[in-house]
Amino acid sequence: MNMQDIRSIAKEYGLKTGKMTKVNLVRTIQLTEGNFDCFATASAGECDQTGCLWRDDCLTLAKKEAS
After folding, report:
1. What is the 3-state secondary structure (H, E, C) of 9-66?
2. Among 14, 47, 54, 56, which is most exposed with the fewest C-beta within 10 angstroms?
3. Helices 55-66 & 22-32, crossing angle to 10 degrees?
């Protein structure tokens, strides 16, 4: 998901995006939704949250950060 889409979601929650990185912004949205702020932390490439909106980007970024 691109940053413009993520900022639109954040705006729906009344969040100010400022100069937040993608990771920080998604984690803030996750907390606002009442979820764990786990975006991009699946360093082993495993995640049991199969219905998560962020899943594809999360696993991709987690893999890059683990390298």
Report:
1. HHHHCCCCCCCCCHHHHHHHHHHHCCCCCCCCCCCCCCCCCCCCCCHHHHHHHHHHHH
2. 14
3. 130
CB contact set of 66 (below 8 Å; sequence gap of 6+): 43, 44, 45
State whether residue 5 is helix, strand or coil: helix
Tokens, residue 6: 């993520």
Q: pLDDT tens for residues 14-33? A: 999 999 999 999 999 999 99
Kindly report whether the global pTM for this prediction surpasses the value 0.85: yes
Distances in Å between the Cα of 13 and the Cα atoms of 8, 22, 36 are 9, 16, 16
